[in-house]
Structures are given as structure tokens and as C-alpha cells.
Amino acid sequence: MKYKYKKKRKKMDKYIFYIIFMIFNVIFGLSGLAVLGGGVFLIIKIEFNQYIIIIICLGGIMSGIFTLGLFVWKRTKKILIVYMIFICIIIVIEFSFSLVIKFHKDTNYFIKNSIKEITEVTEEQKDEIINVSVIIVSSAAGCGLLSFLFAFILYKKLKGKSNKYSKDNGDDILKGLDHTNLNPDISTI
Hints:
Blueprint: H1 2-45, H2 50-70, H3 76-103, H4 105-118, H5 123-159, H6 170-174
């Protein structure tokens, strides 16, 4: 009885971590779609440039990783490993991009001039827009980090101890065996 409860508990833990993982994956996917939509909006409003291409590529990759995360349950371990590798790459890119937006003078100047082409704003509002952009990109990276953490926990739960000779599964190995004739006849040897 205790073994069945423990087995059900482990299975329920996997579902709970999968649901938490999926919540953060959906949030990550929505932020990827928002980044993609923002990049398309910028291409429509201002001229074509390398920063907007980076934004669109980043949003597309984030949406692709989100889609990959949707298929984790069916083909668990291998896709989960690929998911974690891609999400680590995106986290590094997003944090780097937010640092470039905030501290690189040429990029900061370019963004301020591009904002002027979209709408009329003051210098303080331009600085505020840049700060909000950094916060948005950093929070998308933070959500990616949470997705990575729960993907790692889910991977550990799915990996588990699946050795068929372990103590927990010992009853399954002996199931159906005839235990009545355990003393061999020495004369037949």
C-alpha cells in the first residue's frame, strides 16, 4: 500500500512540475510574441536597421523555444535538454542586449533618435522609454530563467531512479515467479 502511494505521489509531483513549467513557458512564449510584434511595429514605423532585425530574430527564437516547450511531455528528456540549452542561450542574449541598450552610448543615442521618428517626446521621456525597454527585456530574460529552472527540475523528476533492480521496484521483478521450489535437487548437478 505504501509503495502505491509513493508511486502515485511521484507521478503527481511530475504533473505539478510540468504544469508550473508550462505556466512559465507560456509566459515566456507570450513575451517572445510581444518582442516579435514590437520588432514588426518598429519596422513599420521607422527605417530598417540592424537593431530591429536583432529584436525580430530574438522574438522569433523565443517563440520557437516556446513551441518546443509545448512538446516536452510527449518526448520528454531529449527535447527538454534541447529546450534548456536554447533557453540558456536566449537568457544570455537578452541580458546582454539589455546591457547594451542601457550602457552603450551609440546604441542609446540611436534609440533616442529613432523614438523621435515615431512620436514627439522630451529627453526625459526618451530616457524613461529606454529604462522601460531595459526592464522589459530583463524581465523576459528573468522569465526565461524561471522556465529554465522548472525545466531542470522537471528533467530531474523525469529522470529519477528508474533502475528496474532498485529496492522500490523489487516486487515487480519477482511478480509471477513460483517460489515453492527454491531448493534445487543436488543429485541432478
